[in-house]
Amino acid sequence: MADIKRTAEAVWNGELRSGRGEISSPSGVLAKTPYSFGTRFEGQPGTNPEELIAAAHAACYSMALAATLGRAGHQPQQVKTRAVCTLQPQQPSGFRITKMRLETEGTIPGIDDATFQKIAAEAEQACPVSNALRGSLEIELDAKLNQAEASAAAEG
Predict the structure, then answer these.
(1) CA dihedral angle for residue 105, residue 109, residue 115, residue 119, rounded to 10 degrees
(2) Strand order from edge to edge, sheet including 138-145
């Protein structure tokens, strides 16, 4: 298989605090999507680089977990992952992404929690985005098995 390459483009106009930027990708999912100092550092509505990294990590880990479960003979009904990206101020100036926390919940019929925890950890080690981030920040994993929904689905 040939290498897979994905691209995105960002344009920034003006200085940091009053400037504005736009992010675009060839797929059109990001089409001149605005971002600014306010959306990144002041909680204003809109996107920011850390939110986009978190989205990429949540999506990638969910797929890695589904694949790892499938290889182990467990077909997931649903994998839901929330990624929390931590940006901390650094001294004397600047910021650094220091941590990514993956909070995942799986609905998988016929699996016990110990097996789910083992597979969830294996998936984190196999996740391409985790591997791209590993070493430069801490990655935490909190995996929960939704046994009630899985049991109900298996019975129905």
Answers:
(1) -50
(2) 78-89, 95-107, 138-145
Compute CA 4 distance to the chain's CA centroid, rounded to the nearest angstrom.
19
Torsion, CA 73, CA 70, CA 54, CA 95, rounded to 10:
70
pLDDT digits 0-9 by tens, 15-44? 999 999 999 999 999 999 999 999 999 999
Confidence bin at 156 (pLDDT 50/70/90): low
Q: Choose which CATH entry (3.30.300.20, 1.10.3720.10, 3.10.20.340, 3.40.50.2300) describes domain 48-155.
A: 3.30.300.20
| DSSP structure string for 7-55 | --EEEEES-TTT-EEEEE-TTSSSSSEEEEHHHHHS--SSB-HHHHHHH
Mean pLDDT of the chain: 94
